[in-house]
Write a structure and sequence with these properties.
Helix content is 33%, strand content 22%. With 339 residues, it is α/β, with parallel strands linked by helices.
């Protein structure tokens, strides 16, 4: 099975160590973005992964594409044009000070792309699973339209659609997110919903906003997941990450998966995080890998959450772990990953 992910890759500019943006006179440059992160995860696991975006024909755009390609991702359908690559500035939080991100992605090559530039019949030839997150339709109205047309094509041609709701308040309001995502959800086969995603994107209450008691809200999550399946009959499964966060670095993580009317729960992983950026994308990559490889539901959710927590120990956006790395931790049954 071949998976295609669709979304924006950005230049990531991070302050050194724990410096705030206001303090820093230098930035560490790398590349990343939700869907590119998922594509790299799949390629690292040995799966067939393709990535779709639009990049400018300049050294920055070419470097970003090269970073994805070097891990074995198929980038043959990537569009070229426009004048700039989106940027995000990242300052790492610690203890009680949260991590902060500042976006500079308006007028990027993908944001300015026309929906008509995407020839979905050609782009999706040979694709079995199409993946996107809620970040992508939030980029611009034209990209929103492109996503809708892609999902309609997938629905008509038997291509499975996987969506991580992935709400970003810095990109759009809850009202706009719900207007768009409630429509797109009619074409989604598997939904990933974490934390505030339920309410912010679909208007379903499942999270009270307190990360210190996330896992304790498991009954609320279960009800929220069941409500997604009730509202969207085309959607056959829902997966979520639940977290109890004591500080920015220290917390408990677990996964829950609703499939065929049954809930599957992973062990709880107690972790000390080096960097949390991309952990949700690593979860999605692990979940997709389980589906591609035909894992049973329990192994699928165990693999997905283990891939996610391993990402917490890896800097930059991409989850550079192999299937054997993940299986080794699963086999050890050691859910305390601080050691």
């Amino acid at each position: 099975m071949k998976v295609m992910t669709f979304g924006e890759i950005m230049l990531r500019l991070k302050t050194p160590e724990y410096l705030r943006i206001l303090q820093s006179d230098a930035f560490e440059a790398s590349y990343g973005g939700a869907e590119s992160n998922v594509a790299v995860s799949l390629a690292m696991f040995g799966d067939e992964a393709a990535y779709l975006t639009k990049i400018p024909d300049n050294p920055v755009g070419i470097a970003a594409l090269g970073e994805v390609r070097r891990f074995g991702v198929d980038t043959s359908q990537v569009l070229h044009g426009g004048s700039r690559l989106g940027i995000y500035y990242f300052e790492k939080g610690t203890d009680l000070r949260p991590t902060n991100v500042v976006y500079d992605r308006e007028y990027s090559a993908l944001a300015m792309a026309d929906a008509g530039e995407f020839a979905w019949g050609e782009i999706l030839e040979g694709i079995d699973i199409f993946y996107f997150s809620g970040v992508t339709p939030a980029i611009s109205t034209s990209v929103e339209q492109a996503v809708l047309e892609a999902l309609q094509y997938c629905h008509d041609h038997g291509i499975q659609v996987v969506c991580d709701l992935n709400y970003r308040s810095k990109m759009w309001s809850t009202e706009k997110a719900q207007e768009v995502m409630k429509n797109l959800m009619n074409y989604v086969d598997l939904c990933i919903a974490n934390d505030e995603d339920f309410e912010s994107t679909l208007g379903i209450h499942a999270f009270d906003g307190d990360m210190a008691h996330g896992i304790d809200q498991i009954d609320s999550y279960r009800k929220g997941m069941e409500e997604i399946l009730r509202r969207y009959p085309n959607c056959k499964a829902v997966a979520s990450v639940l977290r109890n966060m004591r500080t920015v670095e220290d917390g408990d993580w677990m996964g829950i998966y609703l499939k065929d009317g049954k809930f599957y729960e992973s062990p709880v992983h107690t972790v000390h995080s080096l960097e949390a950026v991309g952990a949700g994308d690593a979860f999605a990559g692990g979940l997709l890998h389980g589906i591609v490889r035909g894992f049973d539901p329990q192994k699928t959710i165990d693999f997905a959450i283990t891939a996610s927590v391993l990402k917490l120990m890896i800097q930059k956006d991409f989850n550079i772990v192999t299937e054997q790395d993940v299986l080794r931790v699963m086999k050890s049954k050691d859910t305390n990953l601080q050691r």
